[in-house]
Amino acid sequence: MTDRFEDLIRAGASADVSGWDFDWLDGHATEERPEWRYARRLSERLGSASASLDIQTGGGEVLAEATRFPPTAVATESWPPNIAHATQLLHPRGVVVVADPDEPPLPFGDAAFDLVTSRHPATIWWGEIARVLRPGGMYVAQHVGPASVFELIEFFLGPQPEARRGRHPDDETAAAMDAGLEIVDLRTARLRIEIHDVAAVVYLLRKVIWWVPDFTVERYRERLRELHDLIQTDGPFIAHSTRHLIEARRPA
């Protein structure tokens, strides 16, 4: 008789984690989505822009959902597998993908874009966002909020009290205003995640590498087994993601 735990571990460890979609999780985990529908909002804004920049585009999956793009459309990404994936996905749509280390300065001139966007950026350089925006231009983004998925992170790493304040929307809006931007809209959401098996956990920790930076299956095998047994006994492991929609304008 095969060991269900080992089968799930192998499934999660062998799954392709390139790109930035999470379709593989179907049947393994579920997550609520924010009510503001970022992808649709992004598509609407792109349709009325003249020059756009999508920062840290990942594999380009969300940006590629747009129905049309402005005459000048650019995306940046730092991770080589994502750069390749985004290039294949976005170049046929007329979007140029630029390899960028996600550190300032952005490789563009001042006031180059009337729309800057980003979904779940790992780092946010407000001064650079303000610099490349034209007067009257908008930054429209969905950010990861504070203590997102910390139920899972702390299961492996233990309590992380100092990290829980990171990415707080109050801090981010203050930093945006310090860079000279005006906050037009800010919305927050706390969303339920249900993890149905450890295959999903292994997949997620291989893909979102900053959650548990030293993760390997062998290093955390005992803890994975404990989580597997917990799911078998109590049902899905429940965590919560936090998100905020932020829209900011460079004053005209």
UniProtKB/TrEMBL annotation:
It comes from the Bacteria. PANTHER family: METHYLTRANSFERASE, METHYLTRANSFERASE TYPE 11 DOMAIN-CONTAINING PROTEIN. The keyword Cytoplasm does not apply. It comes from Aeromicrobium piscarium. Pfam families: Methyltransf_11. Residues 53-140 form the Methyltransferase type domain. One of its GO terms (biological process) is methylation. One of its GO terms (molecular function) is S-adenosylmethionine-dependent methyltransferase activity. This is Class I SAM-dependent methyltransferase.
